[in-house]
Description:
The chain is an alpha+beta fold. It has helices at residues 2-25, 48-51, 116-140, and strands at 33-36, 44-45, 53-54, 60-68, 78-89, 92-96, 103-106. Strands 1, 2, 3, 4, 5, 6 and 7 form a 7-stranded antiparallel beta sheet that branches. A hairpin with a 5-residue loop joins strand 3 and strand 4.
Amino acid sequence: MRDFKNYKQECYHFAQHFREAVLEYYQVPPERLRLRSKEDPKKLTDDIYEAMDMQKDTFWHIRFAISLQCQKEQFPDENITFEACVKKAHESFLIKLPKETEFTIKKHEDGKYDFSDFLNFLFMFLKGFYDNELERFLTSGQLPKEQAPIGFRFDPIERG
């Protein structure tokens, strides 16, 4: 049991580093990056432990919610939710989106991790998703009612 707690704690610290990298890399204000609770997906939290969910694939699944806002505040906030999957593998970590390519992230001598390759991939993945959904909406006139495979939600997030 102690080994599992240590493993979870190591993955927690890695997820904290990833969260900080998302804030810095995408220049997201901290109040606009939240996590979804594993117990209640509509509940937003800042507690990574509350969001970490071990699944059958042996990865910790953590759902991040980024609230985007138009500069002129003429439109309601747009919310993007994506799921990052993390797992410790020997002296490094694996990170991926569900059913996507795994990226190996190693700790550098300075104690930091370089997430840039994964964050570039994530940006292109999110951009591609939005481009495809816009095209689908323009041709069909409808947004999908179900949740998309990578975790985007089309319903508004209630502020808590």
